[in-house]
Amino acid sequence: MSTPDAQLLYRPRLADMRPLGEPGAVQAIATRSSEHITPAEALADRSGYAPGFLGAFQVPWPRATEGLQTDVLPIPGSAEHRLDYTHFSITMSRNRRLALLVGVNIEGSALVDVPRSKDRWAYDGRIPSDAQVGEFLYADNLLDRGHLVRRQDPNWGPEAEQANADTFHFTNCSPQMAGFNQKNWLDLENYLLDNTRRWRARATVFSGPVFAEDDPTYRGVPIPRAFWKVVAFLGEDGKPSATAYMIDQSAELGRLTALFGRFRTYQRSVLHIERLTGLDFGELSNYDGFSNEERATGTRIEAELRELGDLRI
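-> structure tokens emitted (313 positions)
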């Protein structure tokens, strides 16, 4: 079996990715993929993300600030304009046709190992298919269909298999460069999930892409240069805590010299993620040491994660 580093040697540059050909070919793939649609009624019973999941530590669904509100895709019947699934929810971007934000509740004491069968991605029938970036973006290239809510995270309790299936909707999919999940980001996600399992604890995790006006465009879709993650949990002392992380590949994509170069992962403040995304995480920054240090010093605090021992909780 080849190592991730060996695989990276054979990854193409973004500039070398060939279009499918005539525009009609792209549309044909989109049409074929549109056959896989989960009907709205099949998802009608989903309760989604629970703000009271951590007990007295209430973690409301993040709010789009004024400058971002017009980009939130309206969802009929949802005051927060979010799509609810099993143990997680998603707010969609109207302009990007990708998720602005996902949020998942993880129950470490009840996680179920659901085997990964053949991937079958589907459109969510509660919103128009053309409001979701589908298979046409990923066909015949090495772009990954990246789970924003990680497949294993909502797989707990008696609804674990349903939760697993729910993660395979294009609403939960974001274009990630192949190799992305073989680097530090995967280590971080494994660390978070393994600790909730070992501690038999609960955690709430928000994730999303960083959208920028100058993101490189491929097949008519701007590809996010970076992704962020905000985690809320109760510490070993029972006190509320929050941490934030970001993986940044902008330097590699900006030069377009090698698509899958070294991905840099940083621990950042919740405040920084708020400024970067236009999302309001309510009181979470008050429980984040990086945010509190930034307020006290007036200096942005960040730490590059070269290994898991670099994590500061």
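The chain has one domain: 4-310.
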